[in-house]
């Protein structure tokens, strides 16, 4: 089946409907690959540097924003993940599901869900 048809769009709507509008916009731009990264800015601004302003090594893409190894960016990501964890707790998310999701997010791709 087509990947589009595999998405539970009702659950996506219900989830995004419960978060702030700016997060909805950020998530949409990240998924679509059109967030205001330096790579995207360089498409519209001549001579704009595509490099990540945090690590100065990689081209700053939507994917890189979530995987950059620069200490400050990693710290901010973990703090953001912890905020999501607190939100899940406040919403009454089942504890095992919350633990698994938090471990997966903090692992940054180091483990699959099956390994957790």
Termini separation: 27 Å
Structural class by secondary-structure content: mainly alpha
**Pattern of helices and strands:** HHHHHHH
Approximate shape: globular
CA-atom Rg in angstroms: 16 Å
What is the number of strand segments?
0
Strand content: under 5%
Put simply, the count of helices is: 7
Largest sheet: none
Portion of residues within helices: 55-70%
- Mean of pLDDT: 91
Please mark out the parts with pLDDT under 50 across 5 or more consecutive residues, or reply none: none
Task: Give structural notes.
- There is one protein chain.
- The protein has helices at 3-6, 9-17, 21-32, 38-44, 62-67, 71-90, 95-107.
- It is mainly alpha-helical and 116 residues long.
- Helix 6 packs antiparallel against helix 7 (95-107).
- The longest helix is centred in the last third of the chain and has 20 residues, at 71-90.
- The two termini are 27 Å apart.
Gist of the model:
The chain has helices at residues 3-6, 9-17, 21-32, 38-44, 62-67, 71-90, 95-107. It is mainly alpha-helical.
Question: How would you summarize the topology of this molecule?
Answer:
Elements: H1 3-6, H2 9-17, H3 21-32, H4 38-44, H5 62-67, H6 71-90, H7 95-107
Helix pairs in contact: 6-7
What descriptive keywords fit this protein?
mainly alpha, 61% helix, 0% strand, globular, 116 residues
